[in-house]
Amino acid sequence: MSVIPSSQEKAAAAVPGAYAGDPPTPYTEDVPENLRRATSRLQFPPTYVVVGFYRLVTDRNLYVPAWQKCKHGFVRGATVATVWAIGTFKIQRKFVEVFLIKSPRVTGLSRDAIFGIPMPFDLPTYATLFFLSSQVSAVIYFFLSRNIRIARERAYDQTIASRGKGADWWRPYVEEWDNPPRVSGQGWGLGALMSGPIGRIFSSLLMIPLHAIPFAGMFIAAWFRALGTARYLHQPYFKAKKMTPDQVATFIEERKWDYRSFGFAAALAERLPVVGLIFSISNRIGAAMWAHDLEKRQHYVAAVKAGLAPGIEHKPKAE
User: Fold this and answer.
1) What are the φ/ψ torsions at residue 118 (nearest 5 degrees)?
2) Which residues on neighbouring strands pair with residue 113, listed in sequence order?
3) 227 touches 128 (CB < 8 A)
4) Kind and range of the H or E element at 64?
5) Spatial distance between the Cα atoms of 109 and 302, rounded to a whole number of angstroms
6) What are the residues facing 109 on neighbouring strands?
7) Is 199 helix (H, G, I), strand (E, B) or coil?
8) Is the dihedral of CA 144, 146, 147, 150 positive or negative?
9) What does pTM read for this prediction?
10) Average pLDDT per block of 10 residues along the chain, 319 residues long
11) Dihedral (CA of 47, 50, 52, 55) sign
């Protein structure tokens, strides 16, 4: 007679970090009422990008300090960028026509359509506007670089403070899986490299030919930077919990598709022209809210393992 394994047994035998697998993540079923909303949000981490943006534009305690810190640099940068865009538009359009729109038979592009899809204006004009929008963002960021970094750090800290949590609320790391993956926190991964300065320069150069195709370069670069971006955004969380490099690597590996999906959405939003600068701040807010929900589950897991809260503790299988 065959025995159908329970969902909890499936979870214990599942590979941590599997994407869209049938076995649920441990400690996500039959959670207490006060943890259900957080558990629901944790099922799809990209929502934190949207929630973070909403919090930034609606909460005066967040957007007022950020704007006060960045407004002077933004005005100066926007002025210089506007003059640059107007003064170089014709030159850059000519460059696009000569060097990027030479072989429509090879690329599948024409002057009035992309792969047969009609456009409201011709392809050289579109590509030029796309190039210019990236340059405008870069010029504004140059004038904002120092102050926007401060605004990002403050946005994360203010979001945590708005939850009324002090330094003692962040507790030591608790392993949630019976059989965690064996990974090392040492070394450099492709995602971590692509999220750094070298990765940003490399991806920008690599994606130049793809700017003629709507959003192609943005999506590809965001995918390469996804995991590294998410890891970087959660550095304050790992630091608050005093996690070792191996613990961080294991924690991310167990949630690798959560981190990839959140990082992809965050990196893609930050690559949007001009408005991406706003997302670079709001993503810190989203990351802080995600960290808060993850920590609430860590508290619940610790309480279950200590016998202080109702729940099903996952026992390791006997050899």
Assistant:
1) -65, 150
2) 118
3) no
4) helix 60-99
5) 57
6) 114
7) helix
8) positive
9) 0.78
10) 45 50 61 83 94 95 94 95 93 79 50 59 77 90 92 94 86 87 63 58 62 67 88 95 92 93 95 92 96 92 78 45
11) negative
Number of neighbouring beta carbons within 10 Å of residue 140: 24
Eight-state DSSP code of residue 128: H
At 228, the amino acid letter reads: G
SS3 314: coil
Q: At residue 302, what is the residue type?
A: A
Q: How far is CA 86 from CA 83, 93, 99, 132, 211, in A?
A: 5, 12, 21, 9, 20
Q: C-alpha angle 255/304/261, rounded to 5°?
A: 15
Alpha-carbon distance of 149 to 110, in angstroms, equals: 41
Q: How far apart are CA 114 and CA 116, in angstroms?
A: 5
Contact between 263 and 232 under an 8 Å Cβ cutoff? The reply is no
Residues 6+ apart with CB under 8 A from 38: 292, 293, 296, 297
Give φ, ψ of 117 to 5 degrees. -90, 120
Report whether 284 contacts 155 (CB < 8 A). yes
Distances (CA, A) of 24 to 18, 39, 252: 10, 12, 17
Tally DSSP H helices, then E strands, for the chain: 13, 2
Per the structure block, which two tokens stand in for 282? Answer: 């709001």
The residue type found at 126 is Y
* Measured distance CA(265)–CA(56) in Å, rounded: 17
Is the Cα dihedral 50, 51, 54, 60 positive or negative?
A: negative
One-letter amino acid of 75? V
- Rounded CA separation 159/4 (Å): 45
**CB atoms inside a 10 Å sphere around CB 37:** 12
